[in-house]
Specification:
The protein is of the alpha/beta class and about 300 residues long. It is about 45% helix and about 15% strand. The strands form 3 sheets. The chain has a 7-stranded mixed β-sheet with strand order 1-2-3-4-7-9-12, sandwiched between helices. The protein has a 3-stranded mixed β-sheet with strand order 8-10-11. A hairpin with a 4-residue loop joins strand 2 and strand 3. One of its GO terms (biological process) is fatty acid beta-oxidation. One of its GO terms (molecular function) is catalytic activity. InterPro entries: ClpP/crotonase-like_dom_sf, Enoyl-CoA_hydra/iso.
Length: about 300
């Protein structure tokens, strides 16, 4: 086994003579809440596994009690990434006067960091397995749903609480109706309730449920079985199933869901008078106001 950090937020290791790569979310002290820096490191880890011809299966796992508490909205690291808010640097002149660019900035940033990243991971040229434990909340669902297969510890619980907390229709990668089913998706989003691992298994969202203490070992054994299949055969299966979902409207539904999510942001921003932090430490790049060229760079923080 070889292991090395991508950053201190994400670690990468290879097992089984390199046939299996395991990526760890490594912010247990914040329950693996996702800063943008973490997401960039995660994308680099997925890209590394994709480029390695020896790797056949990629496991996405997380250190600590919880897989992910979702977007990091409150830590110093996350606030530094977001200062100043998206409407603070640019205004737009319209027939009605000058207005801030809150909606436009939020749209650009979330399309890149959340939506496009997740869609790209869904189509990664490897078979991917999410191994989840504890709470999987809101944006934690997005990371898990991007994977081909999901295995869960018996203590796992799944929820998207952005509706009841922020008045939003759900997170940016809106796979809820496909993963939960339409009526269950409505119930969970309208109430903020969660489902446990057994119910997720009954719904077909989770493939296997393991005792929490055996999650890592049993996930590796599961991945080992899949890694024995020739790479081309695995990818043909993956592409065939993904194409069937896309033919049923999955990709278009994701796009529509993202646009509705951004409409929710615009409404929230207007209702809250566009209040965002305004101070930016000089050493912190302002990626909230970065243009498309900067966002495309691999060395962004």
């Amino acid at each position: 086994m070889t292991a090395e950090p991508v950053t201190d937020l994400v670690t990468y290791e290879t097992l089984e003579d390199g046939r299996i790569a395991r990526i760890w979310l490594n912010r247990p002290e914040t329950h693996n809440a996702q800063t943008r820096t973490l997401l960039v490191a995660l994308d680099e880890a997925f890209t590394r596994a994709e480029a390695d011809d020896t790797v056949r299966v990629v496991i996405l796992a997380a250190r600590g009690r919880n897989f992910s508490a979702g977007h990091d909205l409150g830590s110093e690291a996350a606030l530094a990434e977001r200062r100043p808010g998206p409407g603070q640097h640019r205004t737009f002149t319209t027939h009605g006067g000058t207005r801030s660019g809150v909606a436009e900035k939020t749209y650009l940033q979330e399309w890149h960091f959340y939506f496009e990243n997740t869609r790209r991971w869904r189509d990664l040229r490897k078979i991917t397995i999410a191994a989840v434990q504890g709470n999987v909340i809101s944006a934690g669902l997005m990371l898990m749903w991007a994977c081909d297969l999901i295995v869960a510890a018996d203590d796992a619980r799944f929820s998207d609480v952005v509706g009841v907390r922020l008045g939003m229709p759900g997170v940016e990668y809106y796979a809820h109706p496909w993963e939960f089913g339409p009526r269950k998706a409505k119930e969970l989003l309208l109430t903020g309730d969660s489902i446990d691992a057994d119910e997720a298994h009954r719904l077909g969202m989770v493939s296997k449920v393991f005792p929490v203490d055996d999650l890592a070992e049993n996930t590796l054994a599961f991945a080992r079985r899949i890694s024995e299949l020739p790479t081309m055969a695995s990818l043909l299966i993956k592409d065939s199933v993904n194409a069937a979902a896309d033919a049923m409207g999955f990709t278009e539904a994701l796009r529509h869901g993202f646009h509705i999510h951004e409409l929710g942001h615009a409404h929230w921003s207007a209702a809250n008078d566009n209040r965002f932090p305004v101070a930016l430490p000089p050493e912190v790049p302002d990626w909230r106001t970065a243009g498309p060229t900067q966002l495309a760079r691999r060395d962004r923080p």
